[in-house]
Amino acid sequence: MKKNRIKYFTIILIMMFLTLALRLAFLQLINGDYYSQQAEAVFSRVYSEKPQRGEILTTEGIKLATNIQSFNIIYTDNRKVVPEKDIPKVLLKAIRVLKNETPDYEKLILDTLPIKIDNNKVEFDFDVYVSEEDLNLNDNISQEEKLKKIEEKRQKILKAKEERFKKDYNLPLDLDANQTLYELFVKYKIANKNEDRYIFVENMSLQEAKDVLSLRLLIEKNRFYKYKPVEIAKNVSRKTAFYIAMKSEELPNVSFNEEPLRYYPNGDFASHILGYLSRAGEDTAEQYKSLGYDINNEWIGAIGLEAKFENITKNEYGASLRGEPKEKYITVDKFGNQLKLIGEVEGIPGDTIVTTISYNLQKVAEESLERLFKNLQEGKVDGTRRPNANRGAVVVANVKTGEILALVSKPSFDPNLFAEFGTIKDEETRLRIFTPEKFLTETQKYYNEVLKLDIVPKPLYNYATKSLVPPGSTFKLLTSIAALEEGIITPNTIIVDKGMYRELPGFKGNCWIWNEKHTTHGPVNVAKALQVSCNYFYYAVAQKMGWDKFDKWVKKYNLIRNGNNSATGIEIGENFGQASSVEKRKALFIRKYLKNIMEKLKIKEDDKLLSDIKEMFLNENLDDTRLAGLSENQKKYINSAYNQFIAEAKRLSDLLSASIGQGENQFTPLQLAQFYMTVVNGGNRYKLHLVKEILNPDGSLKYKVEPEVLDKVEIKPETYNAVMQGLQKVNEEGSAASVFRNYPIPTGGKTGTVQIFNDFSSEIAKRASADGVVANGVYVGVAPINDPQIVVVVLVYNAGHGYSCASVVKDIYDEYFGLNKMQPNSETSNSQISTTH
């Protein structure tokens, strides 16, 4: 009995062990891989794919920015397939395939390594572009000081970038570029170090090793997200993509994907309106990461509308060009390798931005401006070659709505250059666009570096919204209105031009006609003064008017900063140019006086006394009780300095110069357009805007931009009539008559010639004239003058004369009013012409 129990118990134990063994065999041998993965699949992740970026259209619906399908070569860092030590070998094979067997080697992303090799010389190569906007410089700073501060900032950034790069890869900070390169070769198993020698793990050239390292660093940036493929080549041909797929056995972990690529069908057309896409900078990377961006593969709007409407955090309309990415929910193992797709959420394309830009008007404006450059450079305008007439701007605005119908800045750039890589791949092209000052001729260097004159054409700079230049005689419209409204003159007041103005002691200004022809305009009223641009007339009214009344009117027309007011309200970046005023002049001169006080009183810049003195000077409220502790002599010195400061800020002779558009007056073409619009439409200062409406991805209306009146500037009817008559006479009998006399539509305008050598000797001015460094030309046009619909502003640097710009305005009128579509023999009266807008 006892033996039977032992026997049965033994059988049961054997059966139990057999069951366990069979179960273990099932788990380990049959489903071992499955359960091994399950054991490691402890993480869930969300993987995003780029959304379809919203389009940007003209007012007619023509595409200015859209998307095309593109193919990218990708590397998925699955270490089970390719262990770390073999990654360089696979990358080398991929590079050689693209270089030797396809035409797409140039599409490799090889700029992640800020080191260049030139004739076997290894150097750091960090991209650093610093502009005036980046430094937020004071308007009153000199050009020489601007250039100095820009270079100081550039060197500081270069040093910081080098240190940051070395810290990111745990390298000693004292390594030079060559040492840095070879230490990285070793770190990422591209080379082995044997005492002082470096030996590549494969037979490859130094350039190939650098290319491998560049791609390896891309993969390294993605080390915590191995389930995400890394793009190693952008926008390759379909043929190349499929060829890579065929070589999957030779190139493990290498494949291709498809994604939308930003595309600008018209090249550099309207480029300063659109902007371009760029990689997120170091200072914004974390911000965009927090918004769900894949900053290694997703580009961000840098300037223009691309930047303004990048996402809903960037604008007040709740619009997003980016859209929402497609999201894949996956499980990954402890190494970050993808195991299973759990589910997907489809992405949402970006919003569509419909602009106010008329395609044909923009096209005509751009082509006409380029044609004017060419004619000026070849001497076809006035018989004199103007070789530096290569920068300029055009603004066309609807005076009754504030819509911008065309906005041109030249030179321009092709935003497609940035679309693939988030930067410009070709080094020379990149330098010419970001640092054009490196390509100046010796003559240009003389004016730019010695005389500190800005004559460098900057492709990325928006001359329409940011260039601050004196308006010249176009500003006489404001002086006319101020004098009429303040009762200094009436429309019938006659002032006799005597050529040389000597009514103000110490002032020696002359009318331009006296300087050029040694004659005068004789008796003129305000309309005639506008027509013939009589400096003498404006000197006389400015002397009677004084600074207080002048300042009142520049403030009314928003031509001086007053608190946090914006310049024009446009959606893209702009500068706030300001008229000459007592406030501006005080801000301009205060630094000089404070420096002298510091030296005299031997006090430091951060001393509270100096801060108090600055406040009292600027507020015109010198209080001796705040100077306690100073000796009587020191107080006398400060009182004397204060009186000199106020006298200089309110110097009447400088008001006379300001009254004709010279002096400290500086505006953008956009500001000039808004000022003229406000005058000719009866006093409504409209917010200028480039966006007409915003559409949802399904085409439905999301937001419609309505005209917005920012201010109302009332003037008397007789004032309005007088100045409008003067503007009309400019085109019919004055400086623009050669272009607009007998034009089918009554028009008005004002030319401006802006001298740039008032502060230099006659010898320098003579040399500059021979070199083509001459006055800037400005023209502002209004049409029709009897019922204004549009204002056009044209600025051309180094044009020589303002009237040169009138031909561009005529071409724009021809398009706007449909005159360029009429048959040559057709007869047209004013009543028969209808607008196309």
Low-confidence parts: 823-837
Q: What is the general shape?
A: elongated
Write down the Rg: 34 Å
Compute the number of strand runs.
Answer: 25
The number of helices is 28
* SS-based class: alpha+beta
Taking the alpha carbons of the first and last residues, their distance comes to 113 Å
Q: How would a crystallographer describe the biggest sheet?
A: 7 strands, mixed
Mean pLDDT: 89
Work out the helicity level. 25-40%
Strand-residue proportion: 15-25%
Topology:
Layout: H1 2-30, H2 32-40, E1 43-49, E2 56-57, E3 63-75, H3 87-101, E4 115-118, E5 121-124, H4 132-135, H5 143-168, H6 177-187, E6 191-194, E7 197-200, H7 206-221, E8 230-236, H8 238-246, E9 254-263, H9 271-274, E10 277-278, H10 285-290, E11 300-301, H11 304-308, E12 326-332, E13 338-345, E14 352-355, H12 359-377, E15 392-398, E16 404-410, H13 416-419, H14 427-434, H15 442-450, H16 476-485, E17 495-497, H17 512-517, E18 522-524, H18 526-532, H19 535-556, H20 582-601, H21 608-619, H22 632-649, H23 652-659, H24 669-680, E19 684-686, E20 691-695, E21 701-704, E22 709-712, H25 717-732, H26 737-740, E23 748-754, H27 762-771, E24 776-783, E25 790-796, H28 806-816
Parallel strand pairs: 2-14
Antiparallel strand pairs: 1-12, 2-3, 3-8, 3-9, 4-5, 6-7, 10-11, 12-13, 14-20, 15-16, 15-25, 17-18, 19-22, 20-21, 23-24, 24-25
Helix pairs in contact: 3-7, 12-28, 16-19, 18-25, 19-23, 20-21, 20-22
Q: What does this molecule look like?
A:
It is a single chain. With 837 residues, this protein is of the alpha+beta class. The chain has 28 helices and 25 strands. The strands form 8 sheets. Strands 2, 3, 8, 9, 14, 20 and 21 form a 7-stranded mixed β-sheet that branches. Strands 16-15-25-24-23 form a 5-stranded antiparallel β-sheet, sandwiched between helices. Strands 1-12-13 form a 3-stranded antiparallel β-sheet, with no helix packed on it. A hairpin with a 5-residue loop joins strand 12 and strand 13. It is elongated. The chain starts with a helix and ends in a 21-residue tail after the last helix. The relative contact order is 0.10. The model is unreliable at 823-837 (pLDDT under 50).
